[in-house]
Amino acid sequence: EATRKQVVGRAGWMLIHSMAAKFQPGEERAVLAMQGFLEAIAELYPCELCKTHFGQFLDASPPPMDSALALLVWTCKAHNEVNSRNGKQLFPCEKEPLQALYGDCGC
Amino acid sequence: EATRKQVVGRAGWMLIHSMAAKFQPGEERAVLAMQGFLEAIAELYPCELCKTHFGQFLDASPPPMDSALALLVWTCKAHNEVNSRNGKQLFPCEKEPLQALYGDCGC
Ligand SMILES: Cc1cc2nc3c(=O)[nH]c(=O)nc-3n(C[C@H](O)[C@H](O)[C@H](O)COP(=O)(O)OP(=O)(O)OC[C@H]3O[C@@H](n4cnc5c(N)ncnc54)[C@H](O)[C@@H]3O)c2cc1C
Ligand SMILES: Cc1cc2nc3c(=O)[nH]c(=O)nc-3n(C[C@H](O)[C@H](O)[C@H](O)COP(=O)(O)OP(=O)(O)OC[C@H]3O[C@@H](n4cnc5c(N)ncnc54)[C@H](O)[C@@H]3O)c2cc1C
């Protein structure tokens, strides 16, 4: 059975990737909100080590705010950093598989 | 099988409730980050109608920022608003069941 850390982790990534996939970079409000969202994950994600790692990644690699697909690729790389640290297979951070998985919000 | 809307919805609530349960209200940074997080959901959640409803709830019922448990109860009420709109059973927004479900981040 999945641990709480896994359950919250899967949920967290699902929301992060899905929000990136639907990002509308033309709108200043959206850009500010996305910055606030990513900073909030770095500040409040309910796992000390996780949020610290995420904050380090955020500082070291500023997220592109000019395209939803570029931002989605960035979230994929952030996720792969954890995959790599945990000895897991890396996910292909290419636009097509990412769009296919996260681009359709069903609404 | 679950629709994308359900998958993203479950993930979204899991993260929102779990972040509220671990909120540390004493820290100004945390309070600002939580405000930014909730506003980002209202701005960027990948479902137009959902984010609009959430934004209306956020405006009408300002989230308490003085206690993690009070904030967790608030997120439960926000979630119940959707449950009620969708004709689902309301969840008991009492501290014990909420803490039991969302208070242990496993890390
Ligand atoms: C912001 C954040 C930071 C985290 N930091 C840590 C940490 O420092 N240490 C730690 O142990 N755990 C951390 N976690 C949890 C960890 O990333 C996993 O969520 C958890 O270990 C469960 O892993 P999983 O194998 O179930 O799949 P997950 O890694 O949760 O992935 C869920 C699904 O997403 C897809 N996926 C996999 N990789 C990618 C990718 N790169 N891009 C897009 N989709 C992908 C796959 O379909 C996969 O099944 C963090 C989670 C979040 C949200
Ligand atoms: C911010 C946000 C806004 C949304 N707005 C809409 C909308 O306007 N219209 C729409 O159709 N869908 C909306 N959704 C999606 C909807 O809330 C559900 O997530 C989706 O319908 C899937 O429902 P579900 O029955 O699988 O369980 P969910 O409602 O996703 O709940 C998942 C689990 O959380 C627990 N739970 C249930 N209620 C509560 C509660 N009140 N407090 C704490 N835990 C609870 C239960 O264990 C439940 O199994 C929204 C989702 C989010 C994150």
Characterize this entry briefly.
With 107 residues, chain A is mainly alpha-helical. The first copy, chain A, contains 5 helices and no strands. Chain A has a single domain, classed as Up-down Bundle (Four Helix Bundle (Hemerythrin (Met), subunit A)).
Structural summary, described in words:
The structure is a homodimer of 107-residue chains. Chain A has 107 residues and is mainly alpha-helical. Chain A has a single domain (4-101), classed as ERV/ALR sulfhydryl oxidase domain (Four Helix Bundle (Hemerythrin (Met), subunit A), Up-down Bundle). Helix content of chain A is 69%, strand content 0%. Chain A contains 5 helices and no strands. Chain A has helices at residues 4-21, 28-44, 48-60, 68-85, 95-102. In chain A, helix 1 runs antiparallel to helix 4 (68-85) and helix 2 (28-44) crosses helix 3. Chain A starts with a helix and ends in a 5-residue tail after the last helix. At the A-B interface, helix 1, helix 2 and helix 3 of A face helix 1, helix 2 and helix 3 of B. The complex binds flavin-adenine dinucleotide (2 copies). One flavin-adenine dinucleotide binds at residues 6, 9-10, 12-13, 17, 41, 45, 49-50, 53-54, 76, 79-80, 82-83, 86, 91 of chain B. One flavin-adenine dinucleotide is lined by residues 6, 9-10, 12-13, 17, 41, 45, 49-50, 53-54, 76, 79-80, 82-83, 86, 91 of chain A.
